[in-house]
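Page 42, continued from yesterday. The earlier attempt failed because a stray header line got pasted into the input along with the sequence. Redoing it now with the clean sequence only.
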Amino acid sequence: MREELAVNATQAVLKQSVRLFGRETDVVIVHVFLPLLIIGILDPVFEPILALDGYPGAPGSAQTAPAMAILFAFVTVGYVGVMFFREYEWNTYERMLASPATGLDIFLGKALPALLLLLAQQAVLFGVSWLMFDLVVPGSATGLVITSLALTLTAIAFGFMLVMVSPSIRHVDLFTNLGAMLFAGVGGALVPLSQLPGWVGAIAPYFPSYWASKGFRAVLLDGEGIGATVTPTCVMFAFAVLFFLVGAVATRVQERKL
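This time it went through. Structure tokens are written below.
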């Protein structure tokens, strides 16, 4: 009986989250297709950069596709955080707390749509890059999928942490933009680390985006097998656990936010 109530509570929160996403389809579409426009613009720019990095003949999309996947993964979860805060603005969050839903139910109900959105986003990015921008996967396709999944879970955990530590929707927006640009830039997603100052390469491993880039480059540029993605994936999962724990410790789900 208790398990049935928990499932029903999660489903109720999930349905509410889907309705909120349904009201913002234009924003969702932008988050999925804007990265493709950027890939199309930057694709020819990165071909000579990759040649200098030791990959002559590699398409620019081998750098730009994972770069946009990483950047917009963290940008998109910030938008999910904004949707979370709208529950407060519309005074519907208290109703969720008054229901049988637990903190875990609320988190799962909010996280599942975000998970599906991010997975769809990355599937579109890599799929269209393959169809239109000459992206090939000389390495393990399974490794590419696993790296994408690890990135998605890490981004969701990061978004959860932001929601829990941020006192207002403005802080979520600020931290999201700063975090996404910092992760993508310092982690070597936007530009290969070999083209950046040495101090950037020294601190890059302390960012999850570095490990996402490492996993993507292993299969898209180095032609490595799935084994080359194991370490990057495990490190990203460790970051995800860290982000989740920080968010869980930072505040209580019952706390009223601005």
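Notes: Confidence is low (pLDDT under 50) at residues 1-6.
Reminder to self: strip header lines before submitting.
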